[in-house]
Every structure is written in C-alpha cells, then in structure tokens.
Amino acid sequence: MNLLIKRMQTLILLKFEIMKSLEKNHRKDIDGLRAVAVISVIIFHLGFLPFGYLGVDVFFVISGYLITKIIYTETVSDSFSIVEFYLRRIRRIIPLVLFVIIIALCIGIPVMLPDDLENLSQSIIATNFMANNILLLITTGNYWDAVNEFKPLMHTWSLGVEEQFYFIVPLIFLILRKERIKWALWILSFLALLSFLLYILPFGKEASKFYLIQYRFFEIAFGGILAIIFQDRLIKFPARFIILFLLLLLLGINVNIQAQWTLILVVFLTGILLITKRSKFEGILLENKYVQFIGKISFSLYMWHQIVLGFGRYFVFSTVKTFSSLFSIILVTFLLSVFTFYFIERPFRDKKKVGTKKLLLTVVLATIFTSGISFYLYSIKGVIRDVTELNLFKSEVILVIYI
Hints:
Low-confidence stretches: 18-22
Oligomer: single chain
Number of strands: 0
Structural class: mainly alpha
Largest sheet: none
Mean pLDDT: 89
C-alpha cells in the first residue's frame, strides 16, 4: 500500500512539473499564429482572402505540435493517462461547442424553413459525435457549394478531423510505453507519409481529400513529428520573418499555384515557424497585446463566426459585403467570443471551478438534450409548424412517420 501511495505521489509531482514547464515555456508567437489563422478563416468566409480557408490548416499543425508534445512528454515520464487526456480535450472543446449548438437550435427553430431545420438537426447530431466532416461529404460534397454559406455549423467539419486524429494518436502512445517509446516517431512518420501520399496521388475524390481524416492526417501529424524531434528546443533561423511573410502571402493572395500544393506549403511554413526562434519583427507583429488577445479567444471566434454569418445570410442581410453588414457581423462575433471565452471556456478549463463530475454531467446532459431534440426535428423533416406556402403541414408529416 505504501508503495502504491508513493507511486501516486510521484505521478502527481511529475504531472505538476510537466504542466509547470508548459506554462513556463508558453509560446506567445503561437498565440499570434492562432490569431493569424482565425482572422484568415473569418475574412475568407466574409468573401475575401481566396486562400484564407487555409487558416484551418495552420490550426491543424499547431494542434498536432502542442498536443503531441504533451502526450510524448507524459509518456516519456511514464505519467500519461488516456483518461486524463480525453478529460482535457473535453474541457477544452466540448462545453463551448455544446453552448453554440444550443444557441443555433434556439435561433434555428423559430426562423428556419423545414428543409434547413432538418439539415441543422443533422449537423448538430454529427457535430456532437465529431463527425460533421463525414456528414458534409455525404450531403453536399463540395465545400465551396453556395448552400454551405447558410449552414451555421458547417465549420465544425474541422473539429471532426482533429478529434478523429486524437482518437488515433493517444492509442499509439498508450501502447508504446517505456522502452517502446522510441518507435513513436517512426510510427507517426509512417502514418503521416501514407496520408501525404494519399493526398497528393491522383486518385480519390477531391471532396474526400478535403473532409476525411486519412487525407488530412499528415498535417496534424507533421506538427506532432516536429514536437517529438525538437521538443522544447528552438533553432535559430535568420530568415524566419521571411517564412512568416510567405505564410501571410499564401493565406491572403491567390497565387498561381495549385491549391493542393498551396496547402502543403502552408503546412510546411507553419511547421518551420513552430520550431524556430522568433525575430524582433515578429515580436511586434505577433506578440502585441491585441493580436495576443485574438489568439487567446481564437476558438470562440472560430465557433461563433459561422453561426453569425450563416444566420445573418439566412434572415438578416441580403448581402454581407456592405459596410454595415460587415461591421455588424464582426462586432457581434467578437462580443459573443469574448463572452464565451470568459464565461464558458475559462471556467470549464479550470478544475477548481468545474470539477470532473460536474463537467461530465453537464456534457452528457447537454449532448443528450441537443441530440434528442435534433433527432426529433430530423424525424419530422423539420416541419414543426404548418408552412402553407410549401404545402407542408405538421399533422401530415407526423401521420406519415407513425403509420
């Protein structure tokens, strides 16, 4: 018993030292990159920056780098717990996603037409189970289809890809404990290479390559591979500011490069920025207090922007390119993001404010609630009221279902 207690104390101390080290080595330039990524995506969805959607790929590389570094460090110190890993992921992502989903339901039910409400209910169920990328591939296929602009949860496809990655990688490290940890880099590299080849080789549908994890795996894994190789070491690179400039150029300008290779370049350049020491120029550009704040609330900004845009296009704005509509969208998105960052994200990440039991109870109940309502809406084809203009009547739809 005493040996077990000592073992537990050692693990707790190791966890504490790891988290203390991570806090000490907090990278402000990474928060700056998050800001660049989310701003690029938002401006793209507003109708500008033709390659701004590649900001998602910047997020992928950053996530792979940070999360793999944590998993690898904990595995090396023999303190990795897959349960704790998923609890951290839940704290980081799920409460905000569920809150946004509830708001989408509250707005969608009174304003959406039946077909659109049915689609929203599908998206909610898929998002709850981190599979909206698969749903979008099946239902619309083309990410650039105009119909996607009106889908409030269209952007959660990227969460699906990322979380599917984090179902795979922790299992690898769970198996490769102790002396077997040396194989982690080789296995991750092999899987990344396989994914990269699937992506660049001329077979498979373009839509599948956009949405599915097997084609996107190499992006997130690339960040993870760099994290294992370099760990906390950063290399000097005199021309690093040029790399940042090229990244901004690729995100902002429709250069004469095939989209597939533009994505690969963005992934590569982001990786270089993660393993090199920042320049003085970047300290001004990426680490000023305004950019840092945007980076910190980037997840909330990402989650809210499409909700505001989708519903805005649906029943508020005839066009989102007028000054008043653009200003309104940006302002509402920013205010909502600040609110959820302070009142949803931060409290749920803090174990002292929201304990594990309370966290899990909230997540489970909210998931059941939103999924249950969404399944009901889907089962009645979104017809919650009579729509005489479309010759749709609630009583007739229910009669068809229950006969």
